Amino acid sequence: MFLFDTDRWVEIWVTITRNKTRSLLTGFGVFWGILMLVLLLGSGNGLQNGVMKNVNGFATNSAFFFSERTGEPYKGYKKGRYWQMRNRDLETIRQRVKGVRYLSPMIMQWGGQNNVVRGQKAGTYNVRGVYSEYFNIETQHILAGRLLNEIDMVEKRKVCLIGSIVREVLFAPNEDPIGQYIRVNGIYYQVVGVIKPKPRAQIGGRTEESVMLPFKTLQQTSNQGDKFWFLCATADDGYPCDRMVEDIKMVLKSQNEISPTDEQAVSSFTIAKQFETFSLMFMGINLVVWFVGAGTLLAGIIGVSNIMIVTVRERTREIGVRRAIGARPFDIISQIMSESLLLTSLAGLMGLSLGVFLLDLVNQALEAGGEASNDTFFANPEIHIGTAFVATVILLVSGLLAGLIPAWRAMQIKAIDAIREE
Predict the structure, then answer these.
(1) What is the DSSP string of 238-264?
(2) What is the pLDDT of residues 150-209, one digit of tens each?
(3) For the segment 323-370, what is each residue's pLDDT rounded down to a tens digit?
(4) The whole model's pTM is what?
(5) Are the beta carbons of 373 and 367 closer than 8 angstroms?
(6) Which helix (H) or strand (E) holds 377?
(7) 8 Å CB contact between 331 and 322
(8) What totals of helices (H) and strands (E) does the chain contain, helices first?
(9) Rg of the chain over CA atoms, in angstroms?
């Protein structure tokens, strides 16, 4: 078969190398088109990986609520009233709202300078009170010890979790913090765990620089009564998160004398909508990348087709002689199209290889950056194997199409006219 005819491929290679400058310039168009396509796709994936890394670890079906001033007067209350959620609201939500899987309020306590102290060491850190269920919403890496549990909250234990940076500041590198005591806003708590968040984006400040306490313990020690202003909830698998959000809002409004039509009093946002927004954004980026890359590649393919047309014109006499001595039309067509396929494939595969190599260099540089690179919105630029396969198929098809017109023109040449051509 032609594909395995070594002599024929050698002949094709000699023909291409005969016009080195022309072939190099033409092949460079395809090379550049594939290179740009790979780099753009890899950069788009790197941006997507970086952004998704910052939210990876949050339950995708979670929602967050916080109280705002009312936007409507209701039952004798004036517009603009400030209100707060209460512990009783949690039980009502569990009873009336379907589809709630995890529910955790959150309170925050802001102290002064150096509000967290151990011996002679001190630092200024966020202090948060949460339910144990919160760690199913914003997942954590447990570096030592354990997470807060339900018993800690029910018994209002004075225990705490500390972030990884808090540990580095308050404890020596080889010192075990578990079981040790730290003073938070003047009150001593026993450290039961050291954590580091899985998502880069966190609610209520950086978890690495936070101290987390049982929710009811912090309510009691900070004299906040039964009030809180921030609530986290997660829907059951398969249950619409938007429906859960609306039901929770209605319960909060009815429990706190807020008009059912007041859209301002209870604010919320959902992680699911953030994921949906990111998905649409990256879909648009990929479409633009493919459009630009395909345009650049098309320009290179047109160049290949043009150079093959010129080649056919220069070899008119040769084609005529070959047809006169009995060359079949298939032999002429296959040679022209194979020259185009070889030129396109070589240039394209070189561009593909260089693009993957450059993306790998960038990825290695990011990994060498260590912890500092984790704060960027760009990570692991790459192209998937499926994309590389599609690009290869496009190359092969494009190479054949680029040679189609020149091959067709070669077949239009009559043997006697071609022999007379000077």
Answers:
(1) TS-HHHHHHHHHHHHHHHTT--TT-SS
(2) 999 989 999 999 999 999 999 998 999 999 999 999 899 999 999 988 766 667 678 888
(3) 667 667 666 677 767 776 777 777 778 888 888 888 888 888 777 765
(4) 0.64
(5) yes
(6) none
(7) yes
(8) 12, 14
(9) 34
